[in-house]
């Protein structure tokens, strides 16, 4: 257990994700003191925000007098100046006064709201020594991105900068995205897209199906999703490796657009699918060689240094950066 007496500031952190939500109290050094995890209720933002506020208060109760502020991530475009969620495609949430709601619900004056991947990028700078010029891309339920140039997060005039998930990467056989458009990175290379392609291939690949059934018998927690597919790839499935190659090509295509525009030093990948970076990286590199200009193509590509809690640490970093 962390010795609270050694810490200067207590920070509240709330990460509202596409499928799960986390609340926590952090130290100003990035230590997680208390935390709660629960599913995101997408059908009704008011219901979910109440659940979230209640969970945060239970989590933070022993430290409420010491909290200097609460950082909140939202799974979509956010106006950090107004503290609002502009639009979250997966939940179809629009124009929500996030900061106002949580100020009233938990009684904390300083509440900062930010897009979840922007927060990850800020967290990488504050806690991970991320550098001054980088892209931060998540590969999870969806795809998101953030751009840091000269040590500053680029938000854009309407808070839409870094929306890598909606770069177009497939034109001949595009899948429909939750945003309503076709061929977006999110519809082709997110964890959700990988899961759907996996399940489609199962219908016509008897060898893959046999391996899945064998693996399910051995591993009770095995799921037919991107994580499960990575297990099959490790067990020698060529079909699994082909699916990751396809996803890597789309991801590399999107990254190459970002490299040509911003010429960063490195690219950080986060989210659950980033754990499969060794399976994705060969195809990512091939697409970068094909599409990026020579001076931008030589870039480091690595998993986030913040690990599983990158978004939660990013939410806390919002408060530290704001001070």
Characterization of this structure:
The protein is α/β, with parallel strands linked by helices and 323 residues long. The chain has two domains: 4-123 and 309-322, ATPase, nucleotide binding domain (Nucleotidyltransferase, domain 5); 131-304, ATPase, nucleotide binding domain (Nucleotidyltransferase, domain 5, 2-Layer Sandwich). 42% of the residues lie in helices and 22% in strands. The chain has helices spanning 45-60, 98-106, 116-128, 185-189, 191-204, 206-218, 226-234, 238-262, 277-291, 294-297, 310-322, and strands at residues 10-16, 20-27, 32-39, 67-74, 77-79, 84-88, 93-96, 111-115, 134-139, 143-149, 152-153, 266-270, 300-303. The strands form three sheets. It has a five-stranded mixed beta sheet, sandwiched between helices. Strands 11-10-9-12-13 form a five-stranded mixed beta sheet, with helices on both faces. Helix 3 (116-128) crosses helix 11 (310-322), helix 7 (226-234) packs across helix 8 and helix 8 (238-262) crosses helix 9. The radius of gyration is 20 Å and the shape is globular. The two termini are 26 Å apart. This is ROK family protein. It comes from Anoxybacterium hadale.
């Amino acid at each position: 257990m962390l010795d609270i007496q050694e810490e200067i500031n207590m920070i509240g952190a709330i990460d509202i994700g596409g499928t799960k939500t986390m609340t926590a109290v952090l130290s100003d050094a990035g230590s997680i003191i208390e935390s709660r995890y629960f599913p995101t209720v997408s059908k009704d933002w008011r219901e979910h925000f109440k659940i979230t506020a209640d969970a945060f208060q239970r989590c933070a109760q022993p430290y409420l007098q010491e909290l200097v502020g609460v950082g909140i991530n939202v799974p979509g475009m956010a106006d950090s100046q107004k503290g609002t969620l502009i639009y979250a495609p997966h939940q179809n949430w629009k124009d929500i006064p996030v900061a106002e709601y949580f100020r009233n619900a938990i009684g904390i004056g300083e509440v900062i709201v930010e897009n979840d991947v922007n927060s990850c990028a800020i967290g990488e700078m504050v806690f991970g020594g991320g550098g001054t010029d980088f892209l931060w891309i998540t590969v999870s339920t969806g795809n998101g991105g953030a751009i840091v140039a000269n040590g500053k997060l680029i938000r854009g005039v309407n808070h839409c900068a870094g929306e890598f998930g909606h770069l177009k990467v497939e034109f001949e056989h595009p899948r429909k995205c939750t945003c309503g458009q076709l061929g977006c990175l999110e519809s082709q290379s997110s964890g959700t897209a990988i899961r759907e392609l996996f399940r489609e291939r199962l219908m016509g690949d008897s060898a893959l199906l046999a391996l899945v059934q064998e693996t399910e018998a051995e591993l009770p927690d095995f799921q037919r999703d991107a994580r499960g597919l990575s297990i099959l790839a490790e067990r020698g499935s060529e079909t699994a490796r082909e699916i990751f190659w396809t996803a890597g090509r789309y991801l590399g295509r999107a990254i190459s657009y970002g490299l040509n525009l911003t010429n960063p030093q490195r690219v950080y990948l986060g989210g659950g699918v980033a754990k499969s970076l060794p399976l994705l990286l060969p195809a990512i590199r091939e697409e970068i060689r094909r599409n990026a200009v020579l001076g931008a193509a030589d870039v480091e590509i690595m998993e986030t240094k913040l690990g599983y809690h990158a978004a939660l640490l990013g939410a806390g970093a919002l408060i530290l950066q704001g001070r």
